[in-house]
Amino acid sequence: MRENLEGTLAGLPSKPGVYVFRDEQGDALYVGKAKSLRPRVRSYFQRSDGRATIAQLADRIADVEVIVTRNEAEALHLEQNLVKRYRPPFNIRLRDDKSFPYIAVTLADEFPRVMFTRERHRRGTVYFGPYANAKKVRETLDVLNRVFKFRPCEGPRPGRHSGIPCLDFHIDRCFAPCVNEISAEDYGEIVEGVIGFLSGDTAPIQRELDARMQDAARDERFEEAARYRNRLFAIRHLAERQAADKRAVGTVDVIGLAVEGDRAAVQVFPLRDGRMIDRYGFHLENVVDQDELSVLEAFVVEYYGATPSIPPQVLVPVGTQGTEAIAEFLSERRGSRVEVRAPSRGEKRRLVELATENARVALEADSATREAERLRRVTALEQLRECLNLESLPLRIECFDVSNIQGESIVASMVVFVDGRSKNAHYRTFAMRGLDGQDDVGAIREVISRRFARAREGEPDESFSRTPNLVVVDGGRGQLAAALAAMDELDLPRVAVISLAKREEEVFVPGSAVPIRLELHSPALQLLQRIRDEAHRVALRYHRQKRGTKSMETIFEGLPGVGPARRRAILRHFGSVERFLDASQEELEGVPGLPPKTARTLYAQLHKAGPS
């Protein structure tokens, strides 16, 4: 053990707090909490601990940072913040937690939006979710829009620049706040109804729709009555998606947990007034050598750290002990007491066992899916080695593609697949230099040359320092010849190079005039297609970005009083060039950091209006 590390361990306090393990570069490896820091941190360096993950972690630790807290609940809060900040590789994490869909209500706007989103960080916005099914979320929003008629338009202000209401107003899907058809106060009541419904309080809207349907029917307004009837049925369908009615249970969240190896599955059953309103499923990674309480704590911190609605009671798996810190954490988040209990009998125990069984089934299904995917990747790599006569399995494949429009903004992409899976951290993009017109062959030669020149120069960037087993270029014989010529100039070790032509999906290999045609539905060809399509996507995205930047520079050229700093402020405020061009003079004057006089001059210049 390093001397400085030994000194740090010797001086650790025996108090509750959070510890951060860092590597030689100062990057966080692991963030943890402890009731007593001294014994907990020192346990990681005891050779008697036979856990493989702990040994791997301990060998990489160069420094330990500790923060003392007043109690374990405070440590749990701090651990949550530090994990979100650092995203350490050894911490438990929800798989793809950023991609779960939410329903967002933008309360900071004068006329709030109710929208689908996959983010959850904007201030002044209430989020409902996360949900497990994006399609279900969109269907829910469609039904809610038909019932509540909130505005579907984008942006912080309703309506279009023309001041004319859109089609949604005419088909009775919006109250048109953009043309003052509804006041902000009345619209606010509608939004409160949406929030109430999403929080599980569905009875008021059902009573209101039923009353309106009855009134319309009495007045012989049968078409209107039919519309209210259809909306009532849609709301009931949403409210009764899970028809389990356990009113004696009350308002609780039921958590089921299953752990196996380095993975875990969690099922959450939210019950509101005894009614199961949905079911959420999650998978966690990096749980090897962690006890169930640690896994549960990691999930609760991640899930309830972003969930807007926390019930007064949370049921956890049977036999779970030591949940006091979780209860304090949830109570502080809710603003009132939250009870965390592991029920021992009755209906609540049955619900926990049901959630746990669902978690176990989800984990087994995930394991089966992962194994099937692994076998398919292995088969694809073995087929590639056999069909292309490679010396070894192509464990690392790099694919290159070029994107441009008539020779403008020529760019190239490099995507990397390791063991048949994409390695996004190693993706790279290149802006081509000195090419005259549209020259895809010349662009391939340049990007291959630049990529492998950096490898020969001892580039520390791992994406360039690693040698691929197979290089794939998008194109035909010309692109293949260009790639080979670039690599021959650098006198590189032997690397297999092929090209894949889009039209007939032909594979060109060096030294053969006849292309190889893989079976249309073979795993090998599907892997090559997936790699090629990913390279095309990355190149096209970078090309559009370059074109957009060039367009922005052209638009801002010559505008009086707008330098780089104000340009960034304008784009940050409006979000896009289109919104900036459509902005009114008042909106321009509201840009932070832009003087009113400059904003007025800017508006006059954009709209070609002289001074009044």
Question: Could you explain how this protein is built, in words?
Answer:
45% of the residues lie in helices and 17% in strands. Helix 4 crosses helix 11. The model is unreliable at 242-246 (pLDDT under 50). The protein has five domains: 3-91, GIY-YIG endonuclease (3-Layer(aba) Sandwich), CATH 3.40.1440; 99-239, no CATH class; 252-365, 2-Layer Sandwich (Nucleotidyltransferase, domain 5), CATH 3.30.420.10; 396-537, Nucleotidyltransferase, domain 5 (2-Layer Sandwich); 558-606, DNA polymerase, domain 1, CATH 1.10.150.20. The chain is built from 20 helices and 20 strands. By secondary structure, it is of the alpha+beta class. The strands form four sheets. Strands 4, 8, 9, 10, 11, 12 and 13 form a seven-stranded mixed sheet that branches. Strands 14, 15, 16, 17, 18, 19 and 20 form a seven-stranded mixed sheet that branches. It has a three-stranded antiparallel sheet with strand order 2-1-3.
